[in-house]
Design goal:
Helix content is 38%, strand content 21%. By secondary structure, it is an alpha+beta fold. An eight-stranded mixed beta sheet has the order 1-5-6-11-10-9-7-8. It has a five-stranded mixed beta sheet with strand order 13-12-14-15-16, with helices on both faces. The structure holds adenosine-5'-triphosphate (ATP) and magnesium ion (MG). Adenosine-5'-triphosphate binds next to strand 6, strand 10, strand 11 and helix 11.
Length: 421
């Protein structure tokens, strides 16, 4: 027996009962981007492996453990993109989008990470992301945070989210802090778990966001980065906090928030929810002024964020929102009526371009056609039989209300539909 065909583990079909939620989210997002003057960028799903190693960092979980990497037929090492920032920066450099100009960009699409699949964590998942280039200062950081906040409000999710922010300083300040931190953890070397012992050499800041409960007490007593910040950084972080407060957005300062990729500096932030268990981070981002330079471009300030669409959809599933249903389903009986129905429904689509009409297709009795009409959730059934066609009339059956069936002249139909839409 041949093996049953099925999707790759962790790579999901998004079925028609769920796509309305995706579309609702995408529509809300597009409206917000429009309000703030952001432009869309689309980059390939596959890039050279080198790009991700050089940007995200060899020592990160993403590059070290999670990437889908393969050799193509030319022997080049390629990877499915695990996130969107690297490709966006590569495209910007390649097409000179950063030279003497500012950019406010957004993207969306699938990302790939070989993680252990569970609720809210998949191997192909989708992100909506923002990347802004050429702007120093806290105002653009505040802008993207306020933009995401506006989106939560639009989706009715703002009550479920909390915002955590932190300030990682300049690379010089972080270098000083790294030394202090390594010194501290070395004194407690026997209390470090395996992961943290490794990170002590590779990326000591990441020890701070260890989820290991046994490590929490030494992490809590660790020196704080805030104490290594100079005046300029302190002022920058204070401004961000002022802008957020002015806009009425509450936040907490989490001095252990460091984020999982190497390229962040200055501000980092996360929007989290308690409703999704361990997969509670819905949106995360920060400043990455060093990345463009690191990838061979001219030093360019940059700020971005990415949100996980699946996690947002899981939250949207919890409310009572319903996708729009068809206005009418067209049923008919007989050859002449079928022909007239096809013509009529096209005319209706010209007359009421915003409404949805579903034409019955594939034969069957009137009874089974009405059943199908009901299943679509349509408000009305429009009924054509030989008599209706001959008399230029149409039957109207109200599928959701207790209103008597009607039979009206064809030329009154448009008005009746308008009144019912
Ligand atoms: P996590 O800590 O949950 O692994 P992350 O720090 O790896 O998240 P980022 O790389 O910052 O996540 O990606 C931004 C957002 O993309 C996350 O906040 C999350 O909503 C979503 N995301 C990341 N990885 C996955 C995944 N494997 N499946 C579904 N969504 C994901
Ligand atoms: Mg992760």
């Amino acid at each position: 027996m041949s093996k049953k065909l099925q999707a790759i583990r962790g790579m999901n079909d998004i079925l028609p009962d769920k796509t309305p939620l995706w579309q609702r989210l995408e529509k809300a997002m597009a409206e917000v981007f429009q309000q703030y003057g952001y432009s869309e960028i689309r980059t390939p799903l596959v890039e050279s492996t080198d790009l991700f190693c050089r940007s995200i960092g060899e020592e990160t979980d993403i590059v070290g453990k999670e990437m889908y990497t393969f050799e193509d037929r030319n022997g080049d090492s390629l990877s499915l993109r695990p996130e969107g920032t690297a490709g966006c920066v590569r495209a910007g450099l390649e097409h000179s989008l950063f030279y003497n100009q500012t950019q406010r960009l957004w993207y969306q699409g699938p990302m790939f990470r070989h993680e252990r699949p569970q609720k809210g964590r998949y191997r192909q998942f989708h992100q909506i992301g923002i990347e802004c280039f050429g702007m120093l200062g806290a105002e653009i950081e505040a802008e993207i945070i306020l933009m995401s906040y506006r989106l939560w409000k639009k989706l009715g999710l703002e009550e479920q989210f909390s915002l955590e922010i932190n300030f990682l300083g300049t690379s010089e300040e972080r270098a000083v802090y790294k030394d202090v931190l390594v010194g501290y953890f070395e004194q407690h070397a026997d209390e470090l778990d395996e992961d943290s012992t490794r990170r002590l050499q590779t990326n000591p800041l990441r020890i701070l966001d260890s989820k290991n409960l046994g490590m929490q007490s030494i992490i809590e007593k660790a020196p704080r980065l805030a104490d290594c910040l100079g005046d300029e950084s302190k002022e920058h972080f204070k401004q961000l906090q002022d802008y957020l407060s002015d806009a009425g957005v509450s936040f907490t300062h989490n001095s252990r928030l460091v984020r999982g990729v190497d390229y962040y500096s200055h501000t980092v932030f996360e929007w989290t929810t308690a409703s999704l268990g361990a997969q509670g981070t819905v949106c995360a981002g920060g400043r990455y002024d060093g990345l463009i330079d690191q990838l061979g471009g001219k030093q360019t300030p940059a700020v971005g964020l990415a949100m996980g669409i699946e996690r947002l959809v899981l939250l949207l599933e919890q409310d009572q929102w319903e996708a729009e249903k068809p206005l009418a389903y067209i049923v008919y009986q007989g050859d002449m009526a079928r022909r007239a129905a096809i013509k009529m429904v096209e005319t209706l689509r010209n007359q009421l371009p915003e409404s949805c009409f579903v034409l019955h297709c594939g034969g069957g009795s009137l009874k089974s056609q009405f059943k199908k009409a009901d299943k679509t959730g349509a408000k009305l059934a429009l009924v054509l039989g030989e008599r209706e066609v001959e008399e230029n009339r149409v039957g109207i059956k109200f599928l959701r209300e207790r209103i008597e069936q009607q039979n009206i002249p064809r030329n009154e139909l448009e008005r009746l539909l308008q009144n019912n839409d």
